Amino acid sequence: MKMNKAKVEEKQEIGKTKFTKEIEEFIPPAHVSTDMYDIEATSGDLSLLSKYHYKFKQDYQATHVVRPGTTEELSNLMKKCREYSIPMTIRAAGSSCYSSSTPTNGGVIIDMRRMDKIYEIDANNKTVRCGAGISWLRLIEALLEYGLGPKCYPTSYKSSCVGGFVVTSGKVGIGVLKNGIMKDAIKSVVLVKTDGSVETISRNSQGDLSLDDIIGSFGIFGAVAEVELQVSSLYTSMEMIGYSFKTFKMAVEFFRILKNNDTNRPFFLSLSDKNFEKYAHWTFPSRTYFVYAVYSDDPSATSQGVSFAKDAALKLDGLGIEDWYLKEKWRNLADTELNIGRWCQNLIFQEYWVSDNRIEDFYNFYTEKISKQKYRNAFYLMSGAKGGNRIKLFGLSDIKNSREFFGIKAVFNDITINNYKNKDNLYTLGVVNTFYFLKYDPERAEYLRKLKNKLDPEDLVNSYRLVKAKMRPWRVGLLFWIAKLLY
Description:
Oligomer: single chain
Number of strands: 18
Structural class: alpha+beta
């Protein structure tokens, strides 16, 4: 005989209260929250997609936000969740996208930001060991006292956390082109696995998980608690240059020349269109396409890099951008992508991983698509290490105009499918983009699924990422087909 709804809810509330009291025995009560405002504030990310996909679906709402402060507290918390079969969502700053840190089965949100300590800085060996919840800005400031700096870090460094850049792959960012990607800088991580056990994983580890499994895993195998990184000595000079171009072809050629110059690799390299400049900054220069590079090295090498860029730009009719603007742009780099949101009520975007030799093909397909769908748009490309780049496309929409919203999403869907068919992929997956991954990279998905089933048979940790999806390609395809008819 089935219990009535009231009795079921009463039983659930009793279980919730018991669980809360038990975790408050090893985590201070101030860091255990059941407040719904707190839960909602930690249930989304920068893409705001949770508002459309999960906000009003009660089954997906978390019941707790818990903030462990040590690896031991994190371990005990995950053991207790496993004991009660309570789903867990691991999150840090929530600066990723596509519901990467959104609960999909309710349960507990584990907020990592209290795990922000620096355990050791070894200036002689140029290493740092820190909590995964530390922000990049705080880590940069701490290393500065030793004359050191990260080899690479994301453009969202003001707010994003170190652990987040690990589990979302860290293939593009500041310092990547010159010093290598995040994967190259990691010496080891301390991982709290889905059953609460703690394991230190390095390049030489022989267990079930390797560093390659953890990097870009979106937390499906557990929570990265601590990270040990190789860092570098601070360079003694830094200079930003920028040139504008009349055509995309000229801008891309200049971009490639700088990227392929092994003698003086830029510390940061980007390409954007006029719309991105207009929406991302209060002021913007003339012309249509812009390439920016930052050189950071000793004064002689920096000077050579700047001179090389100047000579290459002149041959392509590049127009130099004024110093005052460059200083403003570098100072506000961490805010530029966020600034675009102030121009609309509903910012829509998608991120792509595009190989060096396909930039023009990608852009041509993109411009063909947006010429048929009239919406405010912007284009931004940031260099990864040699071989690939992150391209971010923006759609600026009115939140009341649902037809436009789905029309823009339909354009991004067409571009995504075309990108996969040309052997490239998406840059960020999270929850919303996982169905693309399952369809277009089935071998990798199957490998991760087997590993996930072995380590987390109940699928309690960061569910619906990489190994299974709530959405189905045929349903998404039908939705976007209708959207294109209506918009």
